[in-house]
Design a protein that fits this description.
- The protein is mainly alpha-helical.
- The protein has two domains: about 40 residues; about 250 residues, no CATH class.
- Helices cover about 70% and strands about 0% of the residues.
- Helix 5 crosses helix 7 and helix 5 runs parallel beside helix 10.
- The chain is globular and about 60 Å long.
Length: about 300
């Protein structure tokens, strides 16, 4: 009964008719207004982002249909785990998109950091630079074990962090073989993800510039929206390049899927080209980076890479 009394007191003090309080309702109204603004202002981005999410969903649906097949063929090692990794990425992408649409683009920006690294690791696996086991912190060839001691988990964490650093160096940093001037731009690109994840510094910056008005309810700010849109498209392009890796040489996708993949890839490329034409250095660098480190095409398979 004490708990019931406490809850009744909460409703009296904070809620209206037992539901939201007026301040929370103002948030929800502001979020709906923000969504309308985004949809009306950034049509090009909305079309590309929605098309990619539709295609990502379609791809996973195709793959899961293989699982439902009663006569399904055996899968290569860690193929199924990789599909679940993609499913997790798709859900994260949806969360990021919802944050963007409802007034929290830099919260979505922070979440993009996880997706950025996920795409890099998937790309490294498809390139033969690492394996699912190594990226997971397991010893190569051993089956995953989930009931472990704290000491085992600590060792797995150490293994994983060592391998992640090695792969990031090979894909995007000092050992990547990319031109030095490109590496410097990509270091700065990664830096902006990090300063938002650690302390929300970009959010703070965006709150102190402009007309000096403090708004609790989210209002559109072009600088934060543009930062999100540009980074979303780049991370989505990396993920897009890894999607053919969900097909197997004996379970390839049909020509319709492959044509869609090519069209989306061309749109991501044109997005970067248009940004480069405005003088943004990272856009030009990113095109070269994708062609160097994500050389996959619509025919790439998990178990058989197409020669370059």
């Amino acid at each position: 009964m004490h708990w019931v009394t406490l809850q009744k007191n909460l409703m009296k003090l904070f809620l209206t008719n037992g539901t939201e309080g007026k301040r929370l309702l103002s948030f929800k109204h502001g979020e709906m207004k923000y969504d309308k603004y985004v949809n009306n202002t950034f049509r090009g981005h909305i079309i590309l982002a929605n098309s990619f999410q539709e295609f990502y969903t379609e791809t996973i649906e195709i793959v899961t249909s293989f699982w439902r097949d009663k006569k399904r063929l055996p899968s290569p090692a860690f193929y199924n785990e990789t599909i679940l990794w993609h499913l997790s990425n798709l859900r994260s992408l949806r969360a990021v998109d919802l944050l963007f649409h409802h007034g929290y683009p830099l919260d979505g920006f922070a979440r993009l950091r996880h997706l950025k690294e996920s795409a890099l690791f998937l790309g490294a696996i498809l390139s033969g630079l690492t394996t699912f086991s190594k990226v997971s912190g397991w010893n190569e060839g051993e089956e995953p074990q989930y009931l472990l001691t704290w000491e085992d988990y600590a060792q797995i964490k150490r293994n994983r962090k060592t391998e992640e650093k090695r792969i990031l160096d090979l894909m995007i940093r000092k050992n990547s073989g990319l031109p030095e001037k490109h590496i410097k731009e990509l270091v700065l690109w990664e830096f902006f993800f990090d300063i938002e994840v650690h302390g929300a510094r970009l959010t703070y910056y965006c709150d102190i510039i402009g007309d000096n008005r403090i708004s609790i309810v989210p209002v559109p700010k072009k600088v934060s929206l543009v930062m999100f849109i540009n980074r979303f498209c780049e991370v989505a392009w990396m993920l897009h390049r890894t999607l053919p890796g969900m097909q197997l040489s004996n379970r390839g996708f049909n020509s319709s899927w492959k044509n869609k993949w090519v069209l989306l890839d061309e749109n991501f490329l044109e997005m970067e080209r248009s940004l480069a034409r405005t003088g943004i250095k990272i856009a030009e660098v990113f095109q070269s980076f994708i062609q160097s480190k994500f050389k996959f095409n619509q025919n790439t398979c998990y178990d058989r890479r197409i020669p370059d």
